[in-house]
């Protein structure tokens, strides 16, 4: 029986810091890449690196050259970790010298010689600023949204992602967003008062709702919040939403913790999921939020139609579904570890809303 020969391997070992449970730990990662046996045998016979082995080594070098990734928090089961990746580069001349020595000595491992450069935002930056624990978060679903809406949700999320809200500072949604085609926004349907019209930024309220949910769930003091004119299916359960429309309607809340809060947004276009998570000091409060209590329900009126030249004559495209009018109340109790307790109520009143369909400008249903 032939005895299996262990191949000569390039061993790449890297060490990166991680933030785990409020502490920084060093995490080692090891990767092994096998050299082709035929090239190794030829090189050992010639007592030098053959051209074939050199080609493989250079290919491994390109594989090992990794760009830096700035520190972010990631889920690890039920917990959160802050991770980063330095910019790693394989030192080809020094690694080649180690390989040459391994060939002569018949060694089975070649320790890669690496250089590294940390990213601009590091795990240590989080730790030094007191951003060490998961503080709270919120999410929402935009599944089934039209393309314009998805585009605007992503454009707004990119502007809010990866920023600090300093201790005592007030988050101002409208001041945080630059609503422009230059920042990726496109035209789409928006709710303006009691009507629906086209404007840049349709879908922006998906982001404001998600941000509000994160801050609300975390027990942060809410300074300004508005509900939509009518109930919107994207923002169920009823009342758990926040609309914005500059300059009259804004979303504002305060960081009342003892350190900065790190705001991190994640979006998945394929599943239609958006979430914002907050990180900072270890939560010193417990938050209790009631289910919405509804009242004063009123039926939706008859369907409405709006002109849209992109719709074929005789067809109809759903713009928004019918919604009954309703009022909703949500109670929140925040109990701090020092015994202090705050109570607040979120109230929303939604008017009855007809289903709206876009039809061709020549469609007879527009004249009914």
Summarize the structure in words:
Helix 5 crosses helix 7. By secondary structure, this protein is α+β, with helices and mostly antiparallel strands. Strand 11 (187-192) and strand 12 (195-200) form a beta hairpin. The protein has seven helices and 23 strands. The strands form seven sheets. Strands 1, 2, 3, 4 and 6 form a five-stranded mixed beta sheet that branches. A four-stranded antiparallel beta sheet has the order 8-16-15-9. Strands 17, 18, 21 and 22 form a four-stranded antiparallel beta sheet that branches. It has helices at 37-46, 51-64, 92-104, 123-128, 147-160, 173-176, 204-217, and strands at 9-20, 23-34, 69-76, 79-85, 87-90, 109-111, 114-117, 133-141, 163-165, 170-172, 187-192, 195-200, 222-224, 252-254, 261-268, 273-280, 285-289, 293-298, 304-307, 317-320, 325-336, 341-350, 356-359.
Q: How would the blueprint of this fold be written?
A:
Elements: E1 9-20, E2 23-34, H1 37-46, H2 51-64, E3 69-76, E4 79-85, E5 87-90, H3 92-104, E6 109-111, E7 114-117, H4 123-128, E8 133-141, H5 147-160, E9 163-165, E10 170-172, H6 173-176, E11 187-192, E12 195-200, H7 204-217, E13 222-224, E14 252-254, E15 261-268, E16 273-280, E17 285-289, E18 293-298, E19 304-307, E20 317-320, E21 325-336, E22 341-350, E23 356-359
Helix pairs in contact: 5-7
Which consecutive residue ranges, at least 5 long each, have pLDDT under 50? none
Following the backbone from N to C, one meets helices and strands in this order, namely: EEHHEEEHEEHEHEEHEEHEEEEEEEEEEE
- Rg over CA atoms, rounded to whole Å, is 28 Å
**Biggest sheet, open or closed, and with what strands and sense?**
5 strands, mixed
